[in-house]
Amino acid sequence: MWGICKPKIEDAKGDIVIFKEKGIVKGKDVDSLDLLVEQYEAQGGKVTDTQHDIISEKGAKSIHAHYEDTEANKPLYYIRQELNENVMKCPYCAIGQPATLDHYMPKNKYKALALCRLNLVPMCWECNRGKGHTHPYTEYIHPYYLPDLSGITFLNAHIEIVGDVLNFTFSFDKEALRDEDLYELLISHWRNMKLDERLRKSVIDFIHSEVLSESTDMEVLVKYVAILAERIKNKYGLNDWRSAIMRALSQQLNGENGNVIVKNLISMKRQVKDIKI
Predict the structure, then answer these.
(1) Which pLDDT score, from 0 to 100, does residue 276 have?
(2) pLDDT tens-place string over residues 13-60
(3) Beta strand pairing status for 155-162 and 120-123?
(4) Nearest 5°: phi and psi at 31?
(5) N or C: which terminus of the chain carries fewer CB neighbours within 10 A?
């Protein structure tokens, strides 16, 4: 979740050579597009309107029009294939599978970036619909250009008992991040993507398949959850929602409400089993 491997700028520049060969960009626009890609990289995944407009209007429209050539069996499909390689989950939510490419800076406004692989991020359909044009792109993370946050735990999960129902919510640790702008960006991304709401079913499914599949015995569960939490952390990273849930679950099972939590988990499992039958 969050960051994924950023495409190499050398590959983005190599694409421009191919665009020139295919007549997509011509004349001065070739060098201008090369400069634009360099500026996008140097500025962490964004350019100004002035920098973008160095590309001629005709050239920008041509680039924009050829985005459809990244579809299957089209001349530029290789770009889509390379970007989707080894990306198993949508980096915006870690729920759905990548099904499309998102233009981080929207292609309708920044037409010259419509084929820039640094601006194209694998994304699931639901996130693509959610991002849309409702909020400015600056209210979402850019998965290629997040700072190195390895070793920092900044996503926390919270499990509460509301009546007879387990409620799951998430929050960000402002002090751990030590970056006010990044903290606000993560919050706006989470809110705009409606991840609390969308993750509820995924959390329940995850607990059923990964946690309760082993045992519903309290003593066994406490030990198993501790082992599984470490395994999930190593597989997905500290700040994946699954890792956050496992940390919270481990803490709750070892707390005074442990037995109540287990009771609710078992009840959830039975309800899902009944539904499937």
Answers:
(1) 31
(2) 999 999 999 999 999 999 999 999 999 999 999 999 999 999 999 999
(3) unpaired
(4) -65, -35
(5) C
pLDDT band at 1 (very low <50, low <70, confident <90, very high): low
Q: How far apart are CA 181 and CA 203, in angstroms?
A: 28
Provide the terminal-to-terminal Cα distance of the chain, rounded to the nearest Å: 33
Domains of the chain: which residue ranges? 9-138, 155-276
**Residue 271 reports pLDDT greater than 70:** no
pLDDT digits (tens, 9 = 90+) for 99-125: 999 999 999 999 999 999 999 999 999
Listed in sequence order, the residues at least 6 apart from 42 whose beta carbon sits closer than 8 Å to its beta carbon are none
